[in-house]
Amino acid sequence: RSYSITVRVLALFSVSRSGQEMRHDFQEHQCVCEGHSCVSGDRCWGQQCFSSLTMSNGIQVHQKGCFKEYEQSRLNCKTPPSSGQVVECCQGHLCNLDVVVELRSVNLNLFSCLLLSQFCIAEVISPFSCRNVRWRRCAIQCDHPDPCHRRPHRCDLLDHSCTSGSGSGLPFFVQRTVARQITLNECVGKGRYGEVWRGQWQGESVAVKIFSSRDEKSWFRETEIYNTVLLRHENILGFIASDMTSRNSSTQLWLITHFHELGSLYDYLQQSTLDAAACLRMALSVASGLAHLHVEIFGTQGKPAIAHRDLKSKNILVKRNGQCCIADLGLAVMHFQDTNELDVGNNPKVGTKRYMAPEVLDDTIQMDCFESYKRVDIWAFGLVLWEIARRTVSNGIVEDYKPPFHDLVPNDPSFEDMRKVVCVDQQRPNIPNRWFSDPTLTAVAKLMKECWYQNPSARLTTLRIKKTLTKIDNSLEKIKADS
To answer: Alphabetically, which GO biological process terms does the record hold (predicted)?
Structure first.
């Protein structure tokens, strides 16, 4: 008999220092590539080479390869032996050719047994409902019956063709209990889901989103989405780990991500104004993140198309470089074109009423069509763009921050409030007259209106939005150069 449980992937993260988001553009090196993850020959190119050793069913499994990005190597090259894997890294042409990794004073068989026991116990006491859940993450086997009758798993924990979730062909790094290594410093946000804390992990600041027990399905869904291969993108919040931990005699659900000290776009816009360049930088970064979610990447190391379903300024974070990244994927929907499978998850929650598209409010959305969910995201993007534009200064004038439809509905609008305004009266956020004396805001206003068509199929796609914003940005640069 077998009992399958999900294992959360320890992803990779970048950090901010000295008020600047550090970018490390190292020279790429050719590395030796050996093992199941080498799908394109015995050589690969990356910023660091690695050699690793794990234990699989009592057999030592050696692998060699390359880290494509500095952030990937930064965390994984620090992997301690207690994690169940030994990793050695180097820089230079074929520098890992003669590197031989050996086990020293680490009984990986014992570690694996303890790890399996820990996860089996955690799963037995877990309150998750197993029905209707799509399990796509890597799994390990325990000697217990499977009461959930889950679909077959794509790979086993100790099958090293399974990747880290970054889509870079790295060997699977055994998930360790990250929560035990984190010190919580201060609460930086609260919401219906729970709290967000700034924590310290391995000397760096991280964000710890602690879900309330009643919102466990959002926690589970975010964990599932963040572990999607090739999801990592500079405009999507960087995922580190997901953990279930016990603190103060109660079970806590943790989602650990990169920390961005400037907070959400909602908070930032209330305190700060923008110039035209900053406006476009923010808008283009949100559009880029959304476009990466929406696109399906084909191949063995591909990713499904993903729709967010709850895009709003509170679910977008501001980075030190002025760009944004999209967060809060607890309501996301996945689509696999090859099988036409639509995975809507097992979360009964709906999106934020203020940002709901007309077809959601009047219940005419085609729930079995993935394109419908993407068009809902486009509607919400148009509202976020409106929020950004209001805080953009032109001719010395700027509006105070207000949420969309602030003048038409109460502070906490009901479903019926929004349906009347958006569907019956077909109202849209007001475009201030002063925008039309500024070429950038005029173009941005035209763009947002094309996201607000009552007919969902008439709305722009994310790729068209990206191209339009890039064109507006280029025009702004030309104006600056001419002046």
So the answer is: heart development; transforming growth factor beta receptor signaling pathway
